[in-house]
Amino acid sequence: DTAVSQTPKYLVTQMGNDKSIKCEQNLGHDTMYWYKQDSKKFLKIMFSYNNKELIINETVPNRFSPKSPDKAHLNLHINSLELGDSAVYFCASSQAVLTPDTQYFGPGTRLTVL
Amino acid sequence: AQKITQTQPGMFVQEKEAVTLDCTYDTSDPSYGLFWYKQPSSGEMIFLIYQGSYDQQNATEGRYSLNFQKARKSANLVISASQLGDSAMYFCAMREGISSGSARQLTFGSGTQLTVLP
User: What are phi and psi for residue B86, nearest 5 degrees?
Assistant: First the structure.
């Protein structure tokens, strides 16, 4: 009965590689998000999709590309990985029309770029 | 300018005592929401409690309560009867335009690491 799931949980890769992180939610929410948590634990929004439409696109290198095949899935593809991309990436979901539209987070994906 | 400020990087509390984690915020939007999340060492982000800017009463959820002082722009989390399992990082976050019906991101503070001592 997992609400928001992410795969993989850990990802170790070499600089220059391309990798993807997958996220799925079974809460019936219409909005999904990607957040990045850096080594100092600071969390920052990267992207948000509402009903498969990109609605938030923060200042993120264009090596990062989100894709939402349907409203239950939001994947994050990263090209040409750099050392600075090492972080924990969290997916979250919410139902935008609700007040509050509480965001529920996945378990996170720890990405390590060597 | 920081929208969410958590001034306590680390806090210690004795088991069974109450502890207050501070959070101040900055917004010109009259319609906003404040959220607290817990991140244990296992890494997941757990939603704890929510306070809306128009809510008349302070939010409570079990042992968690929010000391919401709108004029001071503070939304401190109070944990009563601390347990060892409360040891974690706690994040305060704000969502502006809470009544807009459109999705907006959460803006997080830098977090407070709480350690509960036996």
Answer: -80, -10
Per CB-CB distance under 8 Å, the chain A contacts of B104 are: 56
**A18 CA to chain B: closest CA distance, Å?**
24
From first to last of its 114 residues, what are the pLDDT tens digits of chain A? 679 999 999 999 999 999 999 999 999 999 999 999 999 999 999 999 988 888 888 888 999 999 999 989 999 999 999 999 999 999 999 987 777 889 999 999 999 999
**Residue B45 is nearest to which of A48, A94, A105, comparing CB atoms?**
A105
pLDDT (tens digit per residue) in B1-50: 669 999 999 999 999 999 999 999 999 999 999 999 999 999 999 999 99
| Nearest neighbour of A107 by CB, restricted to B43, B98, B102 | B43
Q: Which residues of B touch A52 (CB under 8 A)?
A: none
Q: Does residue A94 sit at the B interface (CB-CB below 8 Å)?
A: yes
